[in-house]
Specification:
eight-stranded mixed beta sheet; 29 helices; binds magnesium ion; Glucose Oxidase, domain 1; transport; eight-stranded parallel beta barrel; Glucose Permease (Domain IIA); 4 domains; Histidine-containing Protein, Chain: A; 19% strand; alpha/beta; binds phosphoenolpyruvate; phosphotransferase system; 837 residues; globular; magnesium
Length: 837
């Protein structure tokens, strides 16, 4: 091929369909970390030289060869993915290192069937490994035959404008000030990676003379970008401009958890030494006493070395897969429970587990003879060291997340049980606990946790606060030498761990705890009587549940009914749909668990982003604006009919109320009413359950009057109503702080809904998350809402709140809130009018 002044056209070394690197199913190649280039999914069994040059490297295992072309470009030709693991079996290298080869000369032959059956993928790569001097431009992205023109390479020039005009894969640059509190730590880095992965272009961050690929969370954390620092961003590829804009937006938007007032209660000043007391930093407030229990991390014995490389590689990859499955399960659970903080933390863990820097280092250690356990441990240690040397406390604390992954993967490798044996009520002491430890300990009912190390802004601290588990960190190594089993006092508010409390002190602490418990018990006891405002308006406080177990807890907590049973929980995470009998049984179990209270059962709300494996729905360009909720009746009418039949079989039907999600017009309601009528007649059922409509899109709120004419009740879903009114994704981590249902626009829609319903004598409830916010209780009552469906543990608190309000005053002041300009202004006014106790 012509070689004109460093430009060179490479011909296809293999025959087959062509792929861009971004589409290669291998994180390292796809990230561009190995260099720019192209891939072919080969159909032939011989790899040919794409140009003349010198063989500068031949892989020992015969699956790859590197040529230096005459223009100086170094070209790695890599056959298949992870083919190194075949240890040369099936490959015959036809050239030697140092040999001169001509264009089109055969370089290596391989047994196509054998290799195809045993490797991850046959997709083969042509990568320029000295890409700092050269750039690549694909000539075709269709299928090629050996010898056909494939890739144009040219030297990088300093004249960027000219380059860019010629370059089909444009590179664009931008700069931005980092808004994330504490800089670019794991969660924002994971979010940036996620944003970057939404585009074909490859993007990098540049800071302090260093660069990192946006595909690597570790790499980005390693830049040690501090809060408010200015970073440069580059994106290269066909959608570079869009990728750049998205990244700039993500970098300049603080995470919800960072913008909301969740700063940890701090008491950073260590106090003077006090006998029998360790001073630490409060990571989660509270007061607890209990026996001290010590937890230890995994200590690896020395590595004897000399392991079978392939075996160790396989073991590591199985362990990684195992842990990744576990984390995915945790994520499903946190998503189902809508615990955003937990979700963000474990999403970051998943991203770290897939991080090319960590995986590559571990693979190299294995190739050097380490056991998988030691290789993984060393790779984690190396990255922890990087984080700790950056001189940024927040990033140093993120080493804890890496150590979490070390423990989990080591446990998987060693086949160790994952459960700790800790008695409920214990105070757990450890060098350091990790997020997954904390989830487990909390589920086991421990009374508090304390650590020798750790920080108040770590992920463990965030989780501990979320779980209401008192937590002290940075107590020092003294903590670890303490006698297990002795009674201690964990006064997290005061930053103290009292190691030898006197009997008097224990009594005092127990008294204080008793007072707190009494307050909660008082609310709990009263929770079983109806909640009335001071001027005699009854407000039903019901519960949102997902199962009969939740329902039983709700009833025990004083729920006046179930305000929302999300039936989709019965349909997700399985391979086949529940049949009518299974559905009937599940709904009946909830009705039975609720005594004589009413139960509102919402028909299935899947579609959009909640996909069911057994229910293929069209792929959506805009899932949340697509076939979801009641619109499913359009495409899967039999599914809804089956659910209605199951509901009609429950008893007593006067306690079973049906709620329709995502309604936008009256006809949708009328259609379901007709179906209900037809099915009931067919089944010989005389009674009809009440039929309600969810108000969760602005159209429904604006049509509330017409809907109320045909519906038995309305229930406002403030989660979706916020999303659709504010045009902000309710799950967008960067916008979460602004998706606030107390926005005056939403309050106007709620007011309009209540006014529309009142015209037809219908009642209005709220089952979105706003109902569980005590700050919103007076506003909702003031606007006319008469049922609040909340999370079961909050029933007592919300009822207590109702009892301290005057409905007439609420109505007067709420009307004024409609004229405010932002959710923030509404929140401030609420604090003023109705301070929280
Ligand atoms: C809502 O949108 O407010 C609601 C209660 O429904 P979900 O959260 O299940 O979408
Ligand atoms: Mg909804």
């Amino acid at each position: 091929m012509p070689n004109n002044n460093k430009e060179l056209t490479l011909s296809a070394p293999l025959s087959g369909p062509v792929l861009t690197l971004a589409n290669v199913p291998d994180a390292v190649f796809a990230s561009g970390a190995m260099g720019d280039g192209i891939a072919i999914d080969p159909l032939n069994d011989t790899l040919y030289a794409p140009c003349a040059g010198e063989v500068i490297h031949v892989a020992r295992t015969g699956h790859a060869v590197t040529l230096r072309a005459d223009n100086g470009a170094e070209l790695l030709l890599h056959l298949g993915l992870d083919t190194v693991e075949l240890q040369g079996d099936g490959f015959s290298m036809l050239v030697k290192e140092g040999a001169r080869v001509s264009h089109g000369q055969p370089l290596l032959r391989y047994d196509l069937d054998k290799v195809a059956q045993r490797c991850k993928s046959l997709v083969s790569l042509l990568v320029i490994t000295n890409g700092e001097h050269f750039q690549a431009r694909p000539i075709t992205l269709k299928a090629v035959k050996v010898g056909e023109p494939l890739l144009h390479i040219l030297a990088k020039t300093s004249n960027r404008t000219q380059d860019q005009e010629q370059d089909v894969s444009l590179e664009v640059f931008g700069q931005v000030r980092i808004a994330h509190r504490g800089g670019l730590h794991a969660r924002p880095a994971a979010l940036i990676r996620q944003t970057a992965q939404g585009f074909k272009s490859r993007s990098h961050l540049h800071f302090g003379g260093k660069s990192a690929s946006c595909d690597s969370v570790m790499g980005m954390m390693g830049l040690a970008v501090t809060e408010h620092a200015e970073v440069h961003v580059s994106s290269r590829g066909s959608d570079a401009e869009a990728a750049l804009q998205a990244l700039l937006a993500t970098l300049s938007t603080a995470l919800a958890e960072e913008t909301q007032a969740v700063a940890p209660p701090t008491n950073p000043h260590r106090r003077a030494a006090e006998d029998g007391v360790l001073h630490g930093v409060c990571a989660a407030p509270g007061l607890a006493t209990g026996p001290l229990v010590r937890l230890k991390g995994i200590q690896l014995p020395p590595d004897p070395g000399g392991h079978d490389i392939e075996d160790q590689r396989r073991r590591l990859s199985n362990a990684l897969e195992h842990v990744s499955q576990e984390i995915r399960l945790t994520l499903d659970d946190t998503r189902a429970r809508r615990h955003r903080d937990e979700e963000a933390i474990f999403s970051a863990h998943l991203a770290l587990l897939e991080d090319p820097l960590l995986l590559d280092a571990a693979r190299v250690f294995i190739e050097q003879g380490s056991a998988a356990t030691h290789a993984w441990s060393r790779s984690i240690d190396a990255q922890c060291q990087v984080l700790q040397q950056l001189g940024n406390t927040l990033l140093a604390e993120r080493a804890n997340d890496l150590r979490d992954l070390r423990q989990r993967v080591l446990r998987a490798l060693l086949g160790e049980a994952w459960q700790f044996d800790v008695p409920p009520g214990a105070i757990v002491a450890a060098q350091e606990l990790t997020p997954s430890d904390l989830l487990q300990l909390s589920a086991q009912g421990v009374a508090g946790v304390c650590m020798a190390e750790g920080g108040a802004t770590s992920h463990v601290a965030i989780l501990a606060r979320g779980k209401g588990l008192p937590c002290l960190v940075a107590l020092g190594d003294d903590l670890l030498g303490r006698e297990p089993g002795t009674s201690v006092v964990l006064d997290a508010d005061g930053g103290r761990l009292e190691l030898a409390p006197s009997a008097e002190r224990l009594t005092q602490v127990r008294h204080e705890q008793a007072q707190r418990t009494a307050r909660r018990a008082e609310q709990h006891a009263l929770a079983h009587t109806p909640a009335q405002t001071r001027d005699g308006i009854t407000v039903d406080v019901a519960a949102n549940v997902a199962s009969s177990v939740d329902a039983a807890q709700a009833l025990a907590n004083g729920a006046d009914g179930v305000g929302l049973l999300r039936t989709e929980f019965l349909f997700v995470d399985r391979h086949t749909a529940p049949d009518q009998a299974e559905q009937r049984q599940a709904y009946q179990a909830v009705l039975d668990a609720m005594g004589d209270k009413p139960v509102i059962i919402r028909t299935i709300d899947v579609g959009g982003d909640k996909q069911l494996a057994y229910l293929p729905l069209p792929t959506e360009a805009n899932p949340v604006l697509g076939l979801r909720g009641i619109r499913l009746a359009q495409v899967q009418p039999q599914l809804l009919d089956q659910q209605l039949r199951a509901l009609l079989q429950t008893r007593p039907l006067n306690r079973c109320r049906i709620l329709l999600p995502m309604v936008t017009e009256v006809d949708e309601l009328l259609h379901i009413r007709q179906r209900l009528e037809a099915l009931a007649t067919e089944m010989g059922v005389n009674e009809r359950p009440q039929l309600g409509v969810m108000i969760e899109v602005p159209a429904a709120a604006l049509l509330a009057e017409q809907l109320a004419e045909q519906a038995d009740f309305l229930s406002i879903g403030t989660n979706d109503l916020s999303q659709y009114t504010l045009a902000m994704d309710r799950d967008h981590a960067g916008l979460a702080a602004r998706v606030d249902a107390l926005h005056p626009a939403l309050l106007r829609l709620i007011a309009q809904t209540c006014a529309g319903a009142a015209k037809h004598g219908r009642w209005v409830g709220v089952c979105g998350a706003l109902a569980s916010d005590p700050l919103a209780t007076p506003v909702l009552i003031g606007l006319g809402v008469r049922e609040l469906s909340v999370s079961p543990p909050q029933i007592g608190e919300i009822k207590d709140r109702v009892r301290h309000l005057d409905a007439v005053q609420c109505a007067r002041l709420s009307a004024e809130l409609l004229n405010l300009g932002s959710a923030d202004a509404v929140r401030r006014a609420c604090h003023q009018h109705w301070p929280l106790g």
